[in-house]
Specification:
Layout (H helix, E strand, L loop, with lengths): L56 H26 L22 E3 L1 H7 L9 H12 L1 E5 L6 H13 L4 E4 L5 H7 L7 E5 L13 H14 L2 E6 L13 E3 L5 H11 L7 H12 L4 H14 L1 H9 L1 H11 L4 H12 L5 H19 L29 H4 L4 E6 L10 E6 L2 H14 L2 H17 L2 H14 L4 H12 L4 H14 L6 H11 L5 H10 L3 H5 L1 H12 L3 H17 L4 H17 L5 H15 L9 H8 L3 H13 L4 H15 L6 H13 L3 H14 L10 H9 L33
Parallel strand pairs: 2-5, 2-6, 3-4, 4-5
Antiparallel strand pairs: 1-3, 7-8
């Protein structure tokens, strides 16, 4: 054990580097004391590896700028969801509530009940799937999106296991391979994999593994239902387990919903139109929405939900075959909605230039020429282009004033927006369905320019539009845009990361986004690895939390540039989790588990300690307040986990930074009496993980550190006494506990060291 006099570092805050952190590592001696004192600095190397050079300054600077952009985006998201400002007109946020089972984890019976409230089993596919599930304990529901496959998977499992069944959703990427290799199948458990996308090439399951999995499921009395697209039936391993899924009869479903809801008798004409339009619907969700609208708001409102005026207006506009002068601004707006009008006009002119360059090659124009209008007298200046929106997109486009940077209402600017959010989706769908290479080639070049040179607001809207395009042309988006941007410059990489996060607004695209990111972490170069780390900070990392944590941990074991990005992403995940106590506790427990499982003198433990201190030093997204202070104030169980992390870091060469982070936390909490209990619990947790001599050294050095001008603020010493006065008795020698709910994260032995790996 370390000498008590050497256990705590300097009493003054360490001098931060330009990016705010002292990132140069210190090798640890066997007892946890730095070999050359706290001021010694040497490369962080693993056993048998050579010293790796520091990253190129310009690369670090560029990556920092990318993370600054991400931080701004997450600030906007948090303001949208948690702030007091009315954000009803804002164009930010990562989507709404997910359906049960989309995020891996337990599916509570109440969630299943809500999902199946109006459920009608589609015949005969439901009966066929139920038979296969009973025989093989495994079935794959294939078919088109939005046909009720997710609800069908829950209904099948509940039919076999009963209403109180324990259901668990697994990740759509690699989960089948992991389940086939796992020996931890639980008896009587229902498993579901929604929107299964397969495995990475080296982990692809084979037919014999599926047979073994089926046998083990039967022996355990457990069952697995997978939902997937049509292409899954071509996979030999799963071919015999597939059932083509169909939506239930819409009229039958509508009648069933009306029986469950307060009855409303519409007029005969309205009822006939309702039934006629219901019969045309294939999405069960549309039918249920119409039934609910009929019961709560009457027949006219139900008809509005079915008529879909927005979709009809968009289709009517494109049936008229708009001229290039009308088509190009509409296509530009589909990818740049809500930015200031002056910026939009500049970028729209750039798109026009790309289209003209393409047409000069002799290919067909992007749209039919406007023969009736002819040349406009006086040239382009006389066109009154802003006024033409009243003619070119009636009922689809409007203007509104939005605040400028910082939310300053006094500097609001006029912006072009669609009248409803769905209009944007319909416009992109029509552009994809009706136009070919002659439009999309110049459009892709224009989007690439915006991803490279646009400001952050512009790139956010590009990412949102490309994510919508991914609903219709995912392969094209991946091949022509994401693959190039993810290996490009900082702006492009941030745009690619945001695109993947926005793709998670659509449930069947979220698994695809995860698969793309996981591919970037595997031997795809440093740029794509950094982009993957960036992509895992938002909605994607929130949905697939444990997979994101495991992937980011693996990246911390790569070259220093990639490792630093992974640490920044883990800190962003914790910052975003401030408003989600469950997520915050999971992140803290994960890092605790990593630290507890790594060997004392291993490179992995050194990396984990640097990651832990990075989290302890992180500030909130909106303010300079330490995120640890916010967690102690709002997340009841955080003190116990933070205490163990602090104790581990205090045992290491990072202890001077840990003492400074602890002092900053106490300063922030000094005037809040409600946190006294949390601070006391923090101290108890820290002392429970430290020896008597270590605790005495901490008490002494923390007292000295609080004399520094940055920390010598009234109230801080009193709170420090609460922290240090905890647990008067000596703790047991072995008082650390490893959370049992985590498995050991995978260690990438083939990617250690080297900044370019």
């Amino acid at each position: 054990m370390a000498d008590p006099d050497q256990d705590i570092g300097p009493a003054v805050p360490p001098v931060p580097t330009a990016d705010g952190y002292d990132e140069t590592p210190v090798p640890e001696a066997p007892d946890g004391v730095p070999e050359a004192g706290d001021g010694a600095r040497a490369p962080d190397v693993g056993p048998g590896t050579a010293s790796e050079p520091r990253p190129e300054p310009d690369e670090r600077e560029e990556d920092d700028r990318g993370y600054d952009d991400l931080r701004r985006v997450h600030q906007l998201v948090n303001n949208n969801f948690y702030g007091v400002v009315d954000a009803s007109g804002a164009a930010f946020g990562f989507g709404g509530t997910s359906s049960p089972g989309l995020a891996p984890g337990s599916i509570e019976p109440e969630e299943t009940d809500r999902a199946l409230r109006f459920y009608v089993p589609p015949r005969p596919c439901f009966d066929e799937a139920l038979r296969k599930l009973r025989e093989d304990a495994l079935v794959v529901l294939i078919g088109q999106e939005n046909r009720g496959r997710g609800a069908g998977s829950l209904a099948l499992l509940r039919e076999i296991l009963g209403e109180g069944a324990k259901l668990r959703s697994l990740s759509p990427a690699n989960a089948l391979a992991e389940l086939a290799a796992s020996r931890d199948l639980k008896p009587g458990q229902g498993y579901v994999i929604l929107d299964y996308v397969g495995e990475l090439a080296q982990q692809a399951v084979q037919a014999y593994e599926i047979r073994r999995l089926s046998e083990r499921l039967r022996r355990k009395g457990s069952y697995l239902v997978i939902t997937a697209g049509d292409t899954t039936r071509r996979r030999l391993a799963l071919r015999d387990h597939c059932v083509l899924w169909q939506a239930p009869d819409p009229v039958e479903l509508f009648a069933h919903c009306r029986e469950k809801l307060p009855y409303v008798e519409p007029a005969p004409d309205a009822e006939r139109e309702l039934l006629a339009r219901i019969g045309e619907r294939q999405r069960p969700a549309d039918v249920v929405a119409a039934a609910v609208a009929l019961s709560e708001q009457g027949a006219e409102k139900a008809l509005e939900t079915l008529r879909d005026r927005c979709r009809d207006l968009v289709r009517e506009l494109f049936r008229k075959r708009p001229s290039a002068d009308d088509l190009i601004p509409l296509a530009a707006l589909a990818f740049l909605e809500g930015i200031p009008e002056r910026t939009f006009e500049k970028e729209c002119a750039a798109l026009t230039g790309h289209v003209r360059d393409w047409e000069r090659t002799g290919e067909a124009p992007a749209a039919e020429p406007d023969e009736e209008a002819g040349p406009v007298p006086g040239g382009a200046v006389a066109q009154q282009s802003r006024a033409r929106w009243k003619e070119r997109a009636v009922g689809l486009v409007t203007t509104e004033y939005r605040p400028g940077p910082g939310g300053d209402e006094g500097r609001s600017e006029r912006c072009l927006v669609f009248t409803e959010p769905r209009v944007r989706e319909f416009v992109i769908a029509e552009l994809h369905d009706l136009y070919g290479y002659e439009l999309w080639y110049p459009l892709r070049r224009w989007l690439a320019d915006l991803a490279l040179a646009g400001d952050l607001d512009t790139r956010m809207e590009v990412a949102r539009g490309v994510a919508i395009l991914g609903r219709h042309a995912l392969v094209e988006v991946d091949e022509y845009m994401l693959k190039a941007w993810s290996d490009g410059l900082t702006n492009q990489r941030v745009t690619a990361a945001l695109t993947l996060q926005f793709m998670c607004d659509v449930e069947h695209l979220a698994p695809q986004a995860l698969t793309i990111v996981l591919g970037w972490t595997e031997r795809s170069g440093p740029n794509r690895a950094v982009t993957a780390a960036m992509a895992l900070t938002g909605r994607l990392g929130s949905l697939y939390r444990l997979q994101a944590l495991n992937s980011l941990w693996a990246l911390t074991l790569r070259g220093e540039r990639i490792a630093f990005s992974a640490r920044r992403s883990l800190a962003l995940l914790l910052q975003n989790a401030e408003h989600d106590p469950r997520s915050a506790v999971i992140i803290l427990r994960f890092v605790r588990t990593v630290l507890a499982q790594e060997a004392p003198r291993s490179r992995e433990r050194s990396v984990a300690l640097r990651t832990a201190v990075h989290l302890l030093e992180a500030t909130r997204l909106e303010t300079a307040e330490p995120v640890t202070a916010a967690l102690l104030r709002t997340v009841p169980d955080s003190a116990r986990h933070l205490g163990v992390l602090w104790a581990d870091v205090l045992h290491s060469a990072n202890r001077s930074r840990a003492v400074s982070a602890l002092c900053r936390t106490l300063v922030q909490l000094r005037d809040d009496p409600s946190v006294t209990g949390a601070v006391r619990e923090l101290g108890e947790s820290m002392r429970g993980a430290m020896s008597r001599h270590q605790w005495a050294a901490l008490s002494h050095r923390l007292t000295v550190a609080l004399k520094h001008p940055d920390f010598a603020i009234p109230g801080t010493r009193q709170l420090a006494r609460v922290l240090l006065g905890s647990l008067r008795g000596r703790p047991p020698a072995d008082s650390r506990h490893v959370p049992a709910s985590f498995t050991r994260p995978p260690t990438r032995t083939t990617a250690r060291g080297g900044r370019s790996k």
